[in-house]
Design brief:
heterotrimer; A alpha/beta; B mainly alpha; C alpha/beta; A: alpha/beta; Rossmann fold; six-stranded mixed β-sheet; four-stranded antiparallel β-sheet; B: mainly alpha; two-stranded antiparallel ribbon; 14 helices; 2 strands
């Protein structure tokens, strides 16, 4: 049984149809690359998985349970985490507040349910240490950190609550080379722990080096479902642009 | 370049500042200003340093203080409530009408006063979150609607003569402390805990900081906003109760431009006008700075015009220093 | 960082010392006005100061930012008590807002004076407050004087429509003036019919609009009574713009300097002058008498004066001295 199963997902915004029946499965410990041109529907599809958007038609199951009716918060509680491209951090709040946002541990004091700051700080520090991230101070607002440090916080938030599926939207787009390597290492580590990963990326080299399978979205359809070890860069590019100037595009991509 | 590394050892001030922000949720400067201002007033006026004058300052701050708590919650969630001054007036009139015109017992009149405010806030929140009308527009509309309604209900006249039990809330002095001061302190402590230490409060700040982040974290942003505007209206109702019981009448013109004074107190106290940061203790210090300034200048028999100038200066200075330090601290 | 805070504190100190005032002395009088930005209250404040200097007593005057700032006036009042004055002379914003402060003043033996008759005797009784005296013009009488003057110009058997422009709806002062005018007019000249009595909210522009509207409906309008001079001057503009200058008798109340100018220019017919300067001056003189143990009437009514071009030109009226 696969971990996450999408079938026949359709979505339109007003008269604009974005997804026309997409199927996608992710197994435990499987890393899926989700690629496609701008506007192919990658982000929309993932927001349907996290519950930010409602699908017009189709089904979503997690470990065989239908999760279509669940709110984003409930899906998160079931183990679906997403790391957004813009990181979705509250920049004036500190590290612990961000990691535990929406899931703050509480303790009862005089009948009032108060946020357990001590536990939050301890757990946040543990998670940051586990990721090997270097942060100036855990009590400072995350807006004062560098881009890579902020990303560490976003990743720590996704991993703190033992997720089953982690979706990463362009996690390497804004990073330096060394930081990219550590993100790819992290993905391999998640895989070894049996966590399913969906990686959205324009950097096909990264996708080829870390994934098991690659799904290519084109004009709202899953145009290709490729096994990574049997796939080359030109195959992917060809699937993305849909024939035509394949060689030119592939050459360009190989340089990049 | 051989610049000496001075960052490695943080100064005493920096360490105190960090503790203050972490534990009390306020910046040290505000306390320094408050104490400094009080010291100046004590030197300039022989009447300043006395228990009864201290009570005067707190009493004069009570109505605005409660409103400023409402403003802090709404502002730190990235919202805006311009209607709290008018809602204060409306609530006071509704309470007085219940108690005087309808002859209702005090508990019901008190509930009606706060309830009228909460209802106005609920309407604000409903239109903002369900009608997608900007908060500025909705609450500006409510500013006019509530004021007009207060004049309609009271027929443009002050409704005088509240029952004794109700008056106790505004004029009673258990242990020599005025009731409005006691109510302000209790409400401030509770709301400080709510904003700083409960999930509700943390979510309020997160929504004001980055609405999208709050949404992706599974927070029901619309419902949360609805409750915030209702809370704001309810607190305005409580302020209306304090006002009406203090002057023993429901005054339909009560609280004109109080919303701006309340927002000023919140911002002097360190609330971010655009959301994400705010603390009730800070707001109380902001309100006290304004209270000490007004009281001191009154004792010195300085015309009220200068007081407005002084408060304007403090507001701009407070935000200037805040911005200056934000830039210093985020400089890497 | 600490430097900045120091700078902020020093800045505040400068601001305060700029407005530095002498410390209080024993036996001073506290005077609490509404707002001094309105010429009427400004003149009363000047009268109070003149009276205090004339009687050589120490005093300090406080006012609030607007004549709607009920609560902030109460706060100022409480603060003034800290200086322990021997008397508090207060022009309350409404009949109730200062009551808690006046009660504690009474409890500490401070004499309380109601300046301009803003307190309601019934409420004072209910609250157990005994004020030393209340001083001011009688607004009902002022309205009646306006009616008397209008009838003296038009004749007791005259007929025609008359417009009354009231003050802010619900405001007691405007209501008394309008009522005094209406009652006296009905008594003296039943033929003169008040066709409309509308609130002008003390607003010159609003009064001008009301006048325009009523003149459209009643082109034969013979008289306008406005509850203050500002609104009367608004009515004047509308009447002259409609080409009816001189045909309509327009009467205001207050006798402020703008009204005097307009009367001299032959536009406004008359203004019932309230003489706020005299009210302030007499208040101070009476307080001194009371503080020194003398007896003072509990209600002092300061006369009002109908200002017309004739009165001003003749210059013989003794009360003219107090028209500011």
């Amino acid at each position: 049984m696969s971990l996450l199963d999408l079938s026949g997902i359709e979505k339109s915004f007003g008269s604009v149809s974005v997804l026309h029946g997409v199927d996608l499965t992710v197994g435990a410990g499987e890393v899926i690359g989700l690629v496609g041109d701008n506007g192919a529907g990658k982000s929309t599809l993932m927001k349907i998985v996290t519950g930010m958007y409602q699908a017009d038609r189709g089904s979503i199951t997690l470990e065989g349970d239908n999760i279509l009716e669940l709110t984003p918060g409930e899906r998160r509680a079931r183990g679906i985490e997403m790391i957004y491209q813009d990181l979705a951090l509250a920049k004036q709040q500190d590290v612990a507040s961000n990691i535990f946002l929406g899931r703050e541990p509480t303790r009862r004091v005089l009948g009032m349910s108060l946020v357990d700051r001590r536990k939050m700080k301890l757990d946040a520090q543990k998670m940051i240490d586990r990721l090997g991230a270097k942060l100036p101070a855990i009590t400072r607002p995350v807006g004062s950190f560098s881009g890579g440090q902020q990303q560490s916080v976003a990743i720590a938030r996704a991993l703190t609550f033992n997720p089953k599926i982690v979706i990463m939207d362009e996690p390497t787009a804004a990073l330096a080379v060394r930081e990219v390597q550590s993100v790819l290492d992290l993905i391999r580590q998640l895989k070894s722990q049996g966590i399913g990963v969906i990686l959205i990326s324009h950097r096909l080299n990264d996708v080829l080096s870390v994934t098991d399978r690659i799904i290519v979205l084109r004009q709202g359809r899953a145009a290709a479902n490729l096994l990574t070890k049997e796939t080359t860069m030109p195959d992917i590019v060809s699937a993305i642009v849909g024939g035509g100037d394949v060689m030119v595009a592939a050459a360009h991509e190989a340089q990049g | 370049m051989a610049t000496p590394q001075i960052q490695s050892v943080p100064s005493l001030w920096a360490r105190l500042q960090e503790k203050s922000i972490e534990q009390l949720h306020i910046r040290l400067e505000s306390i320094v200003v408050l104490v400094g201002l009080a010291a100046i007033m004590a030197i300039l006026s022989p009447f300043f340093l006395s228990v009864s004058n201290f009570m005067n300052i707190l009493l004069a701050t009570s109505t605005i203080g409660v409103l400023a708590i409402a403003a802090t919650f709404v502002l730190s969630s990235g919202g805006l409530d311009l209607s709290i001054g008018s809602v204060l007036g409306l609530s006071g009139v509704v309470g007085a009408a219940f108690a005087v015109n309808l002859g209702m017992p005090t508990p019901i009149a008190v509930l009606a006063t706060i309830g009228a405010g909460a209802l106005a806030g609920l309407v604000n929140g409903w239109v903002i979150t369900r009608g997608f009308v900007p908060a500025f527009i909705v609450t500006l509309g409510m500013l006019g609607i509530a004021r007009g309604l207060a004049l309609v209900i009271s027929d443009g006249r002050v409704i005088y003569g509240l029952p004794d039990w109700m008056l106790f809330l505004g004029q009673g002095r258990p242990f020599g402390i005025p009731m409005p001061v006691i109510i302000l302190i209790i409400v401030a402590i509770i709301m400080h805990i709510v904003l700083a230490y409960t999930r509700y409060g943390r979510h309020t700040l997160a929504i004001g900081d980055n609405e999208n982040a709050a949404r992706t974290a599974g927070i029901n942003v619309e419902f949360h906003r609805l409750t915030l505007y209702t809370l704001s209206g309810g607190l305005a109702g409580l302020a209306g109760l304090l006002f009406a019981t203090r002057i023993n009448s429901g005054d339909p013109t009560a609280g004109i431009t109080y919303e701006l004074t309340a927002i000023t107190a919140a911002i002097i106290g360190g609330t971010n006008l655009f959301g994400g940061r705010g603390s009730i203790l800070g707001t109380m210090i902001g309100a006290m700075i304004m209270g000490v300034l007004q009281n001191g200048l009154n004792l010195l028999a300085v015309q009220s015009y200068y007081q407005q100038m002084a408060i304007g200066c403090v507001l701009v200075l407070a935000v200037f220093i805040d911005q200056f330090q934000q830039r210093q601290e985020t400089k890497v | 960082m600490s430097n900045i805070s120091k700078n902020r504190a020093v800045g505040m100190a400068l601001l305060v010392s700029l407005a530095f005032a002498a410390p209080a002395k024993a036996g001073e009088y506290g005077i609490l006005m509404k707002t001094l930005s309105n010429p009427f209250w400004g003149a009363m404040g000047a009268g109070v100061e003149a009276g205090a200097q004339g009687a050589s007593v120490d005093y300090y005057i406080q006012a609030v930012e607007s004549d709607q700032a009920a609560e902030s006036q109460l706060n100022v009042c409480n603060t003034m008590l800290e200086r322990k004055p021997v008397a508090m002379i207060t022009a309350a914003i409404n009949s109730t807002n200062l009551l808690p402060c006046l009660k504690s003043a009474q409890a500490s033996g401070i004499k309380v004076v109601d300046l301009d008759g803003n307190l309601d005797p019934a409420i004072l009784d209910a609250e157990g407050l005994e004020i030393t005296f209340s001083i001011g013009s009688n607004n009902v009488l002022a309205g009646a004087q306006g009616a008397e003057y209008m009838v003296s110009q038009l004749g007791a058997d005259a007929s025609g429509p008359v417009l009354v422009i009231e003050g802010l709806s619900g405001n007691i002062t405007g209501e008394k003036r309008a009522r005094g005018f209406a009652d006296k007019l009905a008594e003296l000249a039943p033929g003169l019919e008040i066709v409309a009595s509308l609130p002008g909210d003390w607003d010159r522009g609003k009064a001008a609009n009301i006048t325009n509207d009523i003149m459209t409906r009643n082109p034969d309008l013979v008289g306008i009574f406005a509850a203050n001079d500002g609104m009367a001057l608004g009515a004047v503009e509308s009447v002259f713009a409609a080409g009816k200058g001189g045909d309509v008798i327009i009467i205001g109340v207050d006798g402020n300097s703008d009204a005097v100018k307009s009367i001299n220019a032959g536009r406004l017919t008359a203004s019932v002058a309230q003489l706020p300067y005299l009210v302030g001056k007499q208040a101070l003189e009476n307080v001194k008498t009371a503080v020194e143990g003398g007896s003072v009437e509990s209600v002092v009514i300061v006369p009002t004066l109908v200002l017309t071009k004739d009165v001003i030109d003749a210059g013989t009226e003794p009360l003219l001295e107090f028209v500011k």
